[in-house]
Amino acid sequence: MVLWILLIVIAAVIAWIISTYNSLIVLKRRVENAWSQIDVQLKRRHDLIPNLVNSVKGYMKFEQETLEKVMQARASAISSKDVNKRIQSENELSGMLSRLLAVVENYPELKANENVSKLMEELRETENKISYTRQFYNDIVMRYNTKLSVFPSNLIANMFGFKEEPYFKAPEEEKDVPNVDLSI
Fold first, then answer.
1. Radius of gyration, CA atoms only, the chain
2. Contact predicate 137/38, CB 8 Å
3. 3, 7, 12, 131: which has the fewest C-beta neighbours closer than 10 Å?
4. How many whole angstroms separate alpha carbon 118 and alpha carbon 44?
5. pLDDT given for residue 29 in this prediction
6. Backbone phi, psi, residue 96, to 5°
7. Alpha-carbon distance 67 to 57, whole Å?
8. φ/ψ of residue 124, rounded to 5
9. What is the largest CA-CA distance in the chain?
10. Residue 178 carries which DSSP code?
């Protein structure tokens, strides 16, 4: 009788370990999938940037430094392999793109150019998609990291070497509240 109880307890512990391990694997794969969705949108952004830069280059003779910084930030983002460095590089690129778009606003002939207008609209749409996929990724990362942290699943996570994943936080520039002046 005691042997049967012991076997049942051992079987229950083994079943729990397998179940917990599998749930961690499922969450890990969801994190990877969410990152790949972000990666698709980042690739689209990386492809749009050279076209936009080439379209505005002739008009923005005094802004060559801004254009060069955008292209350098793009190159850095593309070459980053580590997720943490990639997130940092992409946030820097987002900041540079914001500056470029602000500079473009100062050139009425650029805003009137149909090519530039289309590229800027595509870039805005892509930025919106990046924001959405970033939110989805962060939600999945939160669930995964929480599972790694809570007892008793943290025992299995530590036993099998699961590591927390980084959040893809918004760049600091996007966190600033815009200043709207409605005085006339």
1. 24
2. yes
3. 3
4. 14
5. 97
6. -65, -40
7. 8
8. -60, -45
9. 88
10. P
